[in-house]
Each structure stands twice: as structure tokens, then as C-alpha cells.
Structure prediction request, 314 residues.
Amino acid sequence: MPSGGSDQNFMIVMAVAALVSFWALWLAVTWQPPMEARLKALRTRRMKTRSEQASGTRPSPKAASIGFMREIADKLNLLRGAAADQTTRKLRLAGFLSRDAAVVYVFVKLALPLTLGFVMILLTSVTGLLKVPDNLTLPVSIGGVLAGFVLPDLYIKNVTTKRRDTLNLVLPEGLDLLTICVEAGLSIDAAFRRVAKEMAGSMPELAAEFEMTAIELTYLPDRQQALENMAERSDSAAMAALVNALRQTEKYGTPLANSLRILSQEFRQTRAAKAEEKGARMPALMTVPLMVFLLPTLIMVLLAPAIMSIFALT
Prediction:
């Protein structure tokens, strides 16, 4: 055998022997008796539990900030009376179901005008980053304050509109799944819960609405109230029709699967009709952009060579 092959085999054997030696040495150094290893695991688990309890007793920054906002709102009596109920209903329509949502909304609506007004004064008068004439400094600051008053309501209104449109868009598919669950023998509570679990990733708005309705159907003494709450939270004609079908089923015992299937077909036809209506309006909507942006450019491209040649001849 050539000496080169022998040297190579010898190097491989030495490398394997060195690796095994290091592995054995590591096991000898790090080995612990079974009882000591178990005690170490218990000590680690105990320290982890203590740290979790200590962190649980310590209030989180989010909870502290919510408490600060609630304290200011209570001192100013911003969460009492008919205005507070109207604010809570408005936030529910937008999908903010937390009990702290009203506190955050009231605090933002109180602090945002002051903050924007101060920022405008800082940008115009103090730092001069925003170049504004002296006679317009006060109107700009007042505009910032007014924008702070209007922006929270605009945001909530925009979120409410998008949520209602999303519910109307995905409701036919949700009713199809609900029909399958009802025909499989599930009760309406279990069907809502199952559909909410299946649609949590693809249709989170409708899944959250169905999950909340399933919880209220389980715990509220009046099931009709749970259905009315779903219609009130969604503020949608399609959801109101679904609630009416469910109420009739609860009251008269009519077949629920047939009603859900008919509603799904009607909502799908309505969605297709709206899409066709939007498509029919597109030529009229595109007329103004064509006249303003495309036609002048096209005319310029067509007439520019002739105009240039005329100027060249003259």
C-alpha cells in the first residue's frame, strides 16, 4: 500500500480517537449522580416559579399606564353619564371590546389636542422648523388643537366602517361553515365556537364576533339578549338578518340549516351585485383622470414634433 494512503488512514484514526477522548473527558467532568441532577432541576424550577410570582405581583407598565389614565378620567368625571355609554357603544362597533378601551379613548381625546397644540407652538415659535408667518402662528396652533379633537373620532369611524364592510364580505363563507356544523348535529353554541376556531386565521373579525356570541349564549340567562348583542356590536344589515333567523329558530323551532343556506345565497348574490355595480361605475369615474392626466400628455406628444418643426422653419 502506498505510504500516502497509510498516512491518511492513520490521521483519520487519530482524529476519531481524539474525538472519543474529548467526549469521554466531557462526560466525566459534567456527569452528576441522578439524585443531584434531580435536585438541581427542582432548584431551577423553584427559582423560576419565584421569579414568575415576583413579576406577577409587580404591575406591568401597561397596567400602570391604564391605571394612570383611569385615575385622570375619574377625577374629571369623563366616564359617567350618557356620554360614557355612547362612547362604549361606539368603541364596540369598532371592535374594541375591552373594558379599558373607553378609558384609553377618553384619555387620548383629552391629551391629543393639547399635545398637537404644543407641538405646533414648538415647531413654529420656538424652534422655527416649520416656517410660518407670524400672523399665522396662532391659527396653525389652533388648527393643531382642532385636529386633535377630530382625529380620534375619524379613526374610530374609519375602523367601524372597515369592520362592517369586512363582516358583510366574509359572512357568506362563515354561514356555509355554520350550516355544515349545524347539519352535523352541533348546537348553535358549539357551532359558533367551532366556526370561530376554524376562521381565527383567515377571518379574525367574524371569528371574534362568533366567539363572543358563543360565550354570551352560554353564560347569559336570556339567549335572545346574546343574539341582540351580536346585532348591536356589528351594526350590519346582514348580521341583523342572521340574528332574526336565529331568533325565529329559537322561538318557533324552524330548521336552522335551511335558513342559513338561504341567507348565505342571498348575501353572496348581494355581494356579487355590489361588485358589478362598482365595475359599471368605473368608466364614469375614470373619465376625469383621463381628461386631466392622459389627454394633455397625449396631445403634447402628438403635437410637439409639428410645433418644433414649425419653429425650426421660422
Notes: Residues 63-162 form one domain. The first helix runs from residue 3 to 30. Confidence is low (pLDDT under 50) at residues 32-36. The radius of gyration is 34 Å.
